[in-house]
Design a protein that fits this description.
With 564 residues, the chain is mainly α. Helix content is 63%, strand content 2%. The strands form two sheets. It has a two-stranded antiparallel ribbon. The protein has a two-stranded antiparallel ribbon with strand order 3-4.
Length: 564
């Protein structure tokens, strides 16, 4: 590694961690309707949105009403996006006259963007019109991220409130998350990306002459606006097929840093938002410490593995350097590895290098980040409520060890809460392992794999893990655009999204109704190094051991076969 590699790592952590406490407090004030510096500018738009939608912002909902509103809104968004994709050929802003997607691909794509997964079994510049990119995908990039933030806020209220029958109003939370939480940052990032050379235009293509004198057609479009929210909203779907490896999406070292930081900026800030809800920022520091420990453990492993020369390459000259296959030379090995670890830790899914070309251990880290259940930063809102589920599981395990009813922040975790927690533990195995096994056993499934042996198995495992984790990244050699995989991967995305959201909302409603009790001298503290260590072990053991046999058949077996 060189000095610029260390500068990249240092700049990344500073730009993520320094603004996080301030931004976390901002999100708390926004979601609770308190005055912020944006209130004079945006509150008229907020009130107008409520009037148009017929929403009474002062009326709160029970968890059942909240869940019904959320599911109804997402089903409506799914139907609208499905129609846009299928009827694309007759809709406006389609200068290339691109036809609509097939039914299975339209279903897969619509589910993907509604669930904040952004799995793409197509190349955007060759398959989607500007109308589909803007009205279809970019809109869902906003509202799917806002939905995750709304669910997190509902859980925070459930933990913080005492003897309450409501957890907020979904329509209000969705509006505030979009208007205050996502739109201003997206506008800022889009301007920074335009400054670096990312296109933002209604021109569909331009003609260029290569250095060899050949003519080339370059696709264009409103790229910067989509890239900004895809990163900030932990969506990840690219305007172009090769995503952030494309020079129009990510043209420079500065744009690479801006986009890297934006992937985890909001998820890290929301950890501090939780601390403001429970009036104890020590809780935030303990959770963030566990997240950082998991991130650093995976990142260090991936950096070490990717900087090793490939023993399969015979040239002594090549052996002295880290392999650059599948990577952009303008980002190098460290920039590519940091992105791969960040995008899988944050449930973002965008890529600036092809994961299919990563060394086996680096691919193992990317898989493990997703298999843990989207909890190392994770998606906007979704990452923290996933981690809070593990926090309560850790508290429950601690209660078992000392023979006491577990309490978290004054709320007892009884049979109903424990059942909901256990239900969430089944989400990742069902989507990644069960649906993956079905896909592998059906006729013709092997046609999607471009490699035999352990690497081919890793391609299939990665696809179904990524979909269930609502991540969206893939091993580039996996051919997913078949009716079989489009449908099964779509089901995995739905399970991975709503298999968490519905139990989390039920948990929020149950906890809000409890009276709570003040913590005493004999209470188990959940803010120190001891608890952070217990939480770390819970995530690794409860969340990770489930997948160890499959990892042994894939990246571990491939690593051993290379003779490192």
């Amino acid at each position: 590694m060189h000095n610029h590699d260390y500068a990249l790592l240092l700049g990344f952590f500073l730009l993520v961690l320094l603004p996080a406490p301030w931004l976390g407090r901002f999100y708390y004030r926004v979601m609770e309707g308190q005055r912020t510096w944006l209130t004079p500018l945006l509150s008229p738009l907020e009130r107008a949105a409520y009037r148009l939608a017929g929403v009474d912002s002062r009326r709160e909902q029970t968890w059942q009403q909240y869940a019904l509103a959320l599911v109804t809104f997402n089903l409506a968004g799914l139907a609208l996006l499905l129609a846009v994709l299928a009827l694309q050929g007759v809709l406006p802003l389609n200068p290339q006259h691109l036809p609509g997607q097939s039914w299975s691909l339209a279903f897969n794509t619509a589910v993907s963007f509604v669930t904040n997964t952004n799995w793409q079994a197509y190349s955007g510049e060759a398959s989607l019109s500007m109308f589909s990119q803007m009205l279809g995908l970019t809109v869902q990039n906003f509202v799917s991220a806002a939905t995750g933030l709304a669910v997190l806020v509902a859980l925070c209220r459930g933990i913080a409130r005492r003897s309450a029958s409501s957890i907020g109003n979904f329509w209000v939370d969705l509006t505030r998350a979009t208007l205050y939480g996502l739109l201003p940052l997206s506008l800022l990032l889009a301007l920074l990306l335009i400054w670096q050379g990312v296109p933002q235009t209604f021109i569909d293509q331009v003609q260029a002459v290569t250095l060899q004198g050949n003519e080339q057609t370059l696709p264009m479009g409103p790229v910067a606006s989509q890239v900004a929210i895809k990163q900030l909203g932990t969506n990840g779907g690219g305007f172009f097929g090769v995503n952030a490896a494309h020079p129009f999406e990510n043209p420079s070292a500065w744009s690479n840093l801006f986009e890297l930081v934006s992937i985890v900026l909001i998820p890290v800030a929301l950890v501090f938002t939780f601390g403001h809800y429970v009036k104890d920022l020590r809780q935030s520091r303990a959770i963030l410490g566990c997240m950082l420990a998991l991130f650093l453990l995976g990142g260090a492993t991936a950096l070490w593995a990717e900087h090793q020369p490939n023993p399969a390459l015979a040239s002594a000259l090549i052996e002295q350097a880290a392999p650059l296959e599948g990577k952009e030379s303008r980002f190098g090995t460290t920039g590519s590895v940091l992105w791969a670890v960040t995008t899988t830790a944050a449930s973002n899914g965008s890529v600036n290098a092809m994961h299919d070309s990563l060394n086996p251990l680096t691919g193992l880290v990317a898989l493990a980040n997703m298999m843990l259940g989207e909890v190392i930063f994770g998606g906007v809102g979704a990452g923290l409520y996933g981690m809070l589920l593990f926090v309560m599981i850790a508290v429950f395990l601690a209660g078992l060890m000392i023979g006491r009813t577990p309490h978290y922040l004054g709320k007892s975790l009884q049979a109903s809460e424990v059942k909901l927690l256990v239900a969430t533990l089944l989400v990742m195995p069902v989507g990644a392992l069960v649906l993956g096994a079905i896909a592998a056993s059906l006729p013709g499934a092997e046609g999607a794999l471009s490699n035999p042996g352990p690497h081919g198995f890793s391609q299939l495992l990665y696809a179904y893990t990524s979909s269930t984790a609502n991540n969206g990244s893939a091993f580039a050699g996996f051919g997913a655009n078949t009716p079989l995989h489009n449908v099964l991967l779509g089901l995995a995305m739905l399970i991975g999204r709503f298999g968490y959201i519905l139990p989390v909302l039920a948990l929020a409603g149950g906890l809000a109704a409890k009276r709570g009790a003040a913590s005493g001298a004999d209470s188990f503290p959940t803010h120190g190094v001891l608890f952070a260590s217990l939480l770390l072990m819970t995530v690794l053991l409860v969340g990770g051991l489930t997948f160890l046999p499959t990892l042994a058949l894939g990246p571990i077996a491939e690593h051993l076969s290379l003779g490192f």
